[in-house]
Design a protein that fits this description.
354 residues, two-stranded antiparallel ribbon, 7 strands, elongated
Length: 354
């Protein structure tokens, strides 16, 4: 049953507003229909005739006639709707974050969505996942960090970087290190054609070991060229033998050698006394990334060693030697681009030692 029609009296100001609303091309359809209903009602039209002209139900016309008569233009706006009360609140979010600060259940390496939901007891696992995604919390990804606690970090870093940026005149700067236990693994390799026609290169999961080799390498900072030799072990005697070959490659030249803090690199005063033209420079503790030869080892691994197969240790060594020769033909020095090297603490990060 349609309520009794209310009389609508428009002020001049309200009429201008409603007419402008009807003329505007950007007016929403719902607002346009409400404005037309009120304008037609003000002209004395009946509810049913307005409903037929506007294209709505008579009860809709009656609703907006009453709303305008009672509240004016404000009555034509939608009333706020409370909606359904949320099941989970900010208190739930705080509970999830608080639980993440605690160690996972005994026997588990890390928290997962189902483990969090089970520990909370009254929170659905889907909400847990949504909350983690919204806060960009990844429970699976892992990052490692290495924070140097060397009290002389600044001085050592400045010494090494200074050799890169402004090397001493008439001197050779070398970065020396070892890549130990490179395995000669024999794997079946070839192309694998998938049912969809796509061809992939691959290797078998099983392999056969043929021994390991330790690669000693020296990178000449000025040219980027590599001097490398192989050894079975990584002791002080092998290191000094390699250094003897390095000094022989640069006779009568002053050598500045950058090394990391491996024990075999230190306490070699007798050898240094016998080679007064050689000076050792050590990177800060836990900062071997300052040694440029580490970058070359990464290049070697990616371009020469990954995904290869060797039937003998000799084949592995010859393969590495061939790569070193090819690399030296096109070698270029690394360019130091970092403007500042400083010891940075983990501020504002949540690091817990369990």
């Amino acid at each position: 049953m349609i309520p009794e029609a209310r009389e609508v009296h428009l002020s001049r100001k309200d009429r201008k507003v409603l007419e402008a609303c009807c003329r505007s091309p950007v007016t929403l359809q719902r607002d346009l229909k409400r404005a037309r209903i009120v304008l037609l009602a003000a002209d004395g039209r009946s509810t049913r005739s307005i409903a037929k002209e506007v294209g709505v139900q008579p009860r809709i016309v009656s609703l907006w006639r009453h709303r305008y008569a009672d509240h004016g233009l404000e009555g034509l706006q939608d009333k706020p709707r409370p909606g359904k009360q949320p099941i989970y609140t900010k208190t739930t979010d705080k509970r999830i974050l608080k639980l993440l600060d605690k160690p996972p259940p005994q026997g588990f390496a890390r928290w997962t969505g189902p483990l969090l939901a089970k520990a909370l007891g009254d929170v659905d696992v889907q909400y847990v996942w949504r909350f983690l995604r919204s806060h960009k919390i990844d429970l699976v990804a892992r990052k490692s960090w290495c924070e140097s606690n060397d009290p002389n970090f600044t001085a050592k870093a400045a010494d090494v970087v200074g050799l890169y940026v402004a090397p001493p005149a008439k001197a050779i700067v070398l970065c020396v290190d070892e890549k130990p236990s490179i395995q000669a693994l024999e794997r079946a390799q070839g192309y694998l054609k998938l049912p969809n026609g796509r061809a992939l290169t691959g290797q078998s999961h099983d392999y056969k070991r043929h021994g390991t080799t330790t690669l000693f390498a020296a990178l000449e900072v000025a040219t980027g060229k590599i001097i490398a030799t192989h050894s079975k072990r990584r002791r002080r005697v092998e290191f000094l033998d390699f250094m003897n070959s390095v000094t022989a490659a640069f006779p009568n030249r002053k050598l500045h050698v950058i090394l990391d803090n491996l024990n075999t690199h230190k306490k070699n005063e007798d050898w240094l006394k016998a080679h007064p033209n050689v000076q050792f420079h050590f990177t800060p503790t836990s900062a071997s990334w300052l040694n440029q030869v580490e970058v070359w080892f990464s290049i070697l691994q990616g371009q020469s060693l990954s995904g290869t197969s060797f039937t003998s240790l000799k084949q592995l060594q010859e393969h590495i030697d061939a790569y070193v020769n090819a690399y030296n033909d096109r070698a270029e020095p690394f360019v130091w681009t970092k403007k500042k090297v400083r010891q940075r603490r983990f501020k504002g990060r949540r690091i817990t030692q369990l």
